[in-house]
Amino acid sequence: MFSSAQSDWNLYEKGIESAFSQVEDLIKDISTSTGEDRQNIISQINSQLCDADKMIISLKSLIHEMPLDSRQAGEGKIKGYQARVQKLRTSSSQSARMVADNDAMRKNLLGNAGQGVEMGDLDGMERMRKVTSDLSKGTDILDDTILVATGTEDTATGILSELDKQKSTLHSIGEHNSDISGDLGQGAGLLRRMQIRAKQNSFIIIMIIIVIIALIALIIFFIVKDAIDKKNAGKEGQ
Question: N or C: which end of the chain has fewer CB within 10 A?
Fold first, then answer.
């Protein structure tokens, strides 16, 4: 049962990581896409994140089949995956919103520029190009900032997951120490009982020796007494 659950767990983890990797690549493509292509990308992102949610639910159902010492680490991973799904959804929404805002600004600028060309305003057209270039640079900087923030959150999530693993390990060590302490206590009790029995046995042996010595002394006494009586009886006969 455990082997099967562990195998399923590993498959779901690979599926989740694959979904996250695809979503991160799709988020990067949002800034370079337009119109229907952008909507398709957003739809793919939502689909991948929904699949990740389903696999996380499957992991939750498998956690009860894992050994006790592995459950805490598994629960930490699940929390990390849930946080990552939420983060990717937020990142996707922010990227789509920024690109849409930039498109709106470009359209406004291009509209004003078109009017300027009709009126012969070449300076306005040049200013429009400069502003558009600045907006593109700003968008690139924002995209880079989002990627850095995403990487930082991934690192923090990984650290939290590792801390959960260490906590589980320490908890397991504590349980083993408790078992060892209990065994040592039982051993100490056994040694005390053996010492008491040894003292009792020593006392019994000493009493037996005393009784034997007393019996030997009594036998010697009677032998000597008998010899003396015989000697006295011989003298009286003479």
Answer: C
Which pair of tokens denotes residue 112?
């004003």
CA dihedral defined by 87, 47, 95, 84, rounded to 10 degrees?
10
Q: Decide if 222 is inside a domain.
A: no
Closest CA to 135 of 115, 106, 164: 106
Length of the chain counted residue by residue: 238
Give the helix/strand (H/E) hosting 70.
helix 68-118
What CA–CA distances, in Å, run from 13 to 8, 33, 57?
9, 30, 12
In a domain, 216, yes or no: no
Count of structural domains within the chain? 1
Query: What residue type is assigned to position 200 of the chain?
Result: Q
The answer to whether 150 and 24 are in contact (CB under 8 A) is: yes
Supply 55's token pair: 């696999």
The pLDDT score that the predictor gives to residue 117 is 42
